What we know:
alpha+beta
Amino acid sequence: MYVHLGGEITVTSDSVVAVIDLENVSALQADFNKYIRAEDDSNRLEYISGDISKSLVITTNRTYVSPMSSGVLLKRLTMLQIQ
Length: 83
């Protein structure tokens, strides 16, 4: 099954490792910032749109910064598991 992350980005639901609510992550968290920098340096970080970033979706291949809320994305993933 596939899940739409926003914009033109759709990924397989089984590739999603984590969905992080960016509104609850402190910009001062060193580990988080280190992870984002490492993903960016490895060209695995992708901003889906220029809108306000609401969630971070980590997949097995890439990390996406999504304008969709983590709640919406988690509901979509949950609905796929029920089916």
